[in-house]
Amino acid sequence: MPLGRQQAWSLVRRTYRTASPGTRLHVLGRFLTCPYLRVLDYLPPQARVLDLGSGHGIFAHLALAAGAREVVALEPDTRKVFLNFPRPGMRVVNGYRDAVRGRFAAITLFDVLYRVPLAEWPDLFAQLRGSLSPGGLLLLKELDPRHRAKAAWNRTQERLADLARRMKSLPPRVLQNCIRLLTGILEPALILAMGALVLLIVLAILLPIIDMNQLVRL
What we know:
By secondary structure, the protein is of the alpha/beta class. It has eight helices and five strands; from the N terminus they run αααβαβαββαβαα. The chain starts with a helix and ends with a helix.
């Protein structure tokens, strides 16, 4: 069943509505920058799907809504596992690839390989191939090193999410001091950025007027 962008975003928003603001922001960033909907087009009808490195489970929810029979969301980060908000047909597994069981019509990986040492890739792909049903599909989306800005953005999202989770474990007083420090750094930077933006807008307005005045004098 095709899943439109508006329908998909409505599903994601309902699913994570009770999550923390930081988690919702991360989910929004992933939804907007990751081609989940394009990958859905390749899923076989009524497929049993393994989403390896599923994170918060965004693709698992979308795949079920698009007609998948079952989705196994495998995620090694225990903290993310508890933020998956499972639904019927979705099985969340906390573990690594050694926890993979059974065969699947499709296996998906979204921005996972850059966290796996290159020496482990052959064994990983051999295992995934053995976990596919006859005619099954391995659907891989990875950071493109040629698109440096997008690759940096994806890595920044992951690092900020990791930082936010680590900060939650800090004592309240230490956490407050960290927030004050970050705010003290970000506020001046934001003011400078806004000033630069205003300057660009003013120049964009004034330059054509200056050019017209010069033409009139000529």
